[in-house]
């Protein structure tokens, strides 16, 4: 393990890295934690457990779950179609999958709101069935689902590409139907990648802001997401409440980061070929 | 080989023609409704009041100022970010030192944090109620509600972009080439520019393209730190919001069409770079996972 260091540049490269990480990442997050911690436990708890804050957690988490569930189904179908079938336009679709990452969230926000508003292309159609999307929790789900589409597709796709056809053939030769082979052979092999994609997608949904605030309606207790509540507290100059609520988001992000890394490391163990 | 394979190969799972057709059709329809339609609606509404209003919106001083501010922000943030990404990748992949994994995790943090949290956090460093607030006010240095704040917040949200493209690639490439170059007498810089850089240039450019798209499109973090001062600290995404809430829908979509165009160009550049091998990371992408795996 102890190999002599031959290459130059460690002090410079590490120096730049540490300075950047300290000033750009660690300092602001440290300041936020410091500010939230300076509140004292009773005040902190009163803010983060206030009915409006709790309602915002519920809206955020439930919408994120709904959006992730949609992406699980659609993302899996999309990855499957892109990998297993050849059809005209496949490459275009493959490129378009990344559009939600490339499109600025504010642009996505006004576009989705316009589509789903009661006089929009989709909204006017859906209103025939009494379905309202814009300015309801459903709208939040739509915005979350849109901005996180690529995650599940992009984690499942490479695993599906590397899947050994011999496994399927063996199952086929044993007389398995397509449905049972998918369920009992293919799905278990995809599961680690799916879980990794799901956790990435869910984390992104929890943190999304730009696309949501346009479509959500932003009614306290009904359609107000947690990041918006932090933003509103800031605009009211209630910095302590903003710090406390932001710290809840920060803790959630750290938990999701740990879960995601764990699942990705696990997924990689299943896919790396020796 | 392919001739026999074609004849002999039994249909794979899901190759049933009916199932195949239905699944492709469903995916195409959902993609059209969910991914293409938002793009189409931007173009439609941008030009709904005609070319003249479109041109007038784009040429409006506030819009021009927003575009310039966005471009200047990207011109500062992206190169610094790239230099950081390269330095971080060089340190992490070419050397063994304690805390390497921790460093990787810290670099990835901004990727999983809500941009609003980033904005709020910056407020508590440079804002009046923040760590350096009074000091900065005494020295009459404006960071928040000015260009430096916008640049800093942009650098936070994009910190991992270049590094996360380079680290898995440079980890896979190993250290042999660089070690050979140095042992033959090349200096560190010479080794980097003649040996390392040619191997990583497309991946680096890939990271730069993604980083740039995110900097130019960042909304949440910038909206907290910029103060939304029209004609002063409004970047293009903030300007879109302002026009939209002013019920200037056509104008807002005209401004949005510029960023939508940027997104399309970004996607095209991405595909072109992927043809050159960039962005094709082995299976899953988490750098932490990559290092974990190599350590075994």
UniProtKB/TrEMBL annotation, chain A:
Transport among keywords: yes
Any one Gene Ontology cellular component term annotated for this protein: plasma membrane
Gene3D superfamilies attached to this UniProt entry: MetI-like
Top-level taxon in the UniProt lineage: Bacteria
Membrane-topology annotation of the record: Multi-pass membrane protein
Keywords, sorted A to Z: Membrane, Sulfate transport, Transmembrane, Transmembrane helix, Transport
Pfam family name, one: BPD_transp_1
Parts of the chain that traverse the membrane: 12-37, 57-83, 95-117, 129-153, 193-217, 237-263
MF terms (GO), sorted A to Z: ABC-type sulfate transporter activity
InterPro entries in the cross-refs: CysT_permease, MetI-like, MetI-like_sf, Sulph_transpt2
Keyword Isomerase attached: no
Main location: membrane
Subcellular location, record wording: Cell membrane
Residue ranges constituting the ABC transmembrane type-1 domain according to the UniProt record: 57-260
Quaternary structure, from the entry: The complex is composed of two ATP-binding proteins (CysA), two transmembrane proteins (CysT and CysW) and a solute-binding protein (CysP).
Function statement: Part of the ABC transporter complex CysAWTP (TC 3.A.1.6.1) involved in sulfate/thiosulfate import. Probably responsible for the translocation of the substrate across the membrane. Part of the ABC transporter complex (TC 3.A.1.6.1) involved in sulfate/thiosulfate import.
Family indicated by similarity: Belongs to the binding-protein-dependent transport system permease family. CysTW subfamily.
Protein name, UniProt field: Sulfate transport system permease protein CysT
Organism: Oryzicola mucosus
From TrEMBL, chain B:
Domain of life: Bacteria
Keywords: Membrane, Sulfate transport, Transmembrane, Transmembrane helix, Transport
One Pfam family it belongs to: BPD_transp_1
InterPro entries attached to this UniProt entry: CysW_permease, MetI-like, MetI-like_sf, Sulph_transpt2
GO MF entry, a single one: ABC-type sulfate transporter activity
Transmembrane segments: 21-47, 67-90, 102-123, 143-163, 203-229, 249-273
Localization of this protein: Cell membrane
All residue ranges annotated as the ABC transmembrane type-1 domain in the record: 67-271
Membrane topology reported for the UniProt record: Multi-pass membrane protein
Entry GO terms, CC: plasma membrane
Subunit note: The complex is composed of two ATP-binding proteins (CysA), two transmembrane proteins (CysT and CysW) and a solute-binding protein (CysP).
Role summary: Part of the ABC transporter complex CysAWTP (TC 3.A.1.6.1) involved in sulfate/thiosulfate import. Probably responsible for the translocation of the substrate across the membrane.
NCBIfam families: 3a0106s02 (TIGR00969), permease_CysW (TIGR02140)
Name of the featured protein: Sulfate ABC transporter permease subunit CysW
Organism in which the protein naturally occurs: Oryzicola mucosus
Lineage: Bacteria, Pseudomonadati, Pseudomonadota, Alphaproteobacteria, Hyphomicrobiales
